[in-house]
User: Fold Sulfotransferase domain-containing protein from Haptolina brevifila.
Amino acid sequence: MPMRANPLWFRTTFLEKTAPERLDVTDDIWPFIRGFNEYDGLTTVVAATAMLPHLFNLFFQPFKCAATDTKVIGISPEDAGIVDPEKASELLHDLMAMAFYTPRFRKGFKIEIRTSPLAESWQLALLDEPTRGQGADSWKAVVTEGPEKYSGTQCTIPVYLSRSTEGILWRLSHKLGDRERILSDVRLGLRYRKVQGVRAYPFTITQSTWEYLRKGFEVRPGDVWATGYPCAGNTLIQMVVRTLRVGGDCDAVTQHGPQAMYASGISSTLEMDVSRGKVDLAYLSKLPESCRVFTSYHTPENMPCMPTAPVEGGDRPARLLPAGIKVVHLIRDPRDSCASLFGHTVNDTGCEWDLWVESFIEGSSMPWGGWLKQNLAWWAAHQRHPDQVLWLTFEEFKEQPQKAVRRVADFLGCELSESDLEELAKATEFEPMKRRLEGLPKLRSGGMTGQLKLFSKPQLHSFDVSVIQPALAVGMRFRDTGADPTMADDAKADDAKADDTKGSV
Assistant:
């Protein structure tokens, strides 16, 4: 307590005037208490609004200390720092009501719906958000098209979950961990779930989905996995591998029918489409060999195809990867990956650019463990099993597409004529690929190096020190698109100049 909080302050603040002059530690003071200051209630309102500056300013006008930048709400009875006490009280009431209210439905819950009571089939949907002003039972739900569509297109539809139609037009379908807690990184605006200790994004992917696949997924020789950190070019690899597996016909992989059955949409992961109900283990077991191409953002030890327990009696599996499978791992310059992932998520997160860059470099708050951690794990797998893990760079595909396609074809043992090779190489270019895949939202610019101009010199320097150099130190091979070589030196000079300035103050 501050020095001013003496016995006189306590009596004046909390006790009735009729209270005895002297009260001992054994005396009952409750008959003389006249009230309490709402410190806890005020703290709740401040905490709830401080995360959103524009909302905080609607309720509070704090005093800011010029020396320390500390903000203080209420420096005197005359200057309480509260804009509208009645609105603040109303917000506190709403927060308490929300805390004690247990809703029947929550974001991320799975339901099954059908168009009429006579329809035989039910379709799985994911509750996204309540429909404002339409009542507690009115929601927006996300429906994913089934496996017959290569793209895994989603659409949002309104649903009214009234009790009178429950079991007739809709029913709850708690599958694959839909009741697992959705977490939120307030700083980044990122909503995610924890899967094997890492942040799984989007939040639809659950720990139960991972366990479901690890226990029931049937690994077969010839399975091909496309891996890489998000926005490394995973759709590109899927396109190339799928085309090679069907004899070089680029159009065949986007057509419907038994020869275009795939485990996931061409721009999504296996875990994502299983968690959305697009496919299940029974469907995966029926896939023909040419269509067994999977995508995952996990590190090798957490791949769905890994055994559920150590083999040969040891603490570590004898092989890092199951025998007979092939992995094509694509890596992209971390700065381009950072900018591309920001572009894909900013509409959902609202995160500021500088904070995003800082967090991407640090890594631990990023999805899937961060760029460095994920690629270090796959580099170790490539070193251990070079016959099973092909290491490619996104920049190779952009600069020498024919050579890159040939490397993938040779790695998978696929025969490809020169004419088919040339056609597939052209198909991997951004514009033809975007036309063929009907403008999937995941395809943004498909370029490289141009995004470096988005970064400041200190940010490029931080990337070099904290991400690029640690990767190069273990021998990791990737194409450093690089800024102007003088940029890093200029950033170091700026840092040194700043340090000198601090020392002279």
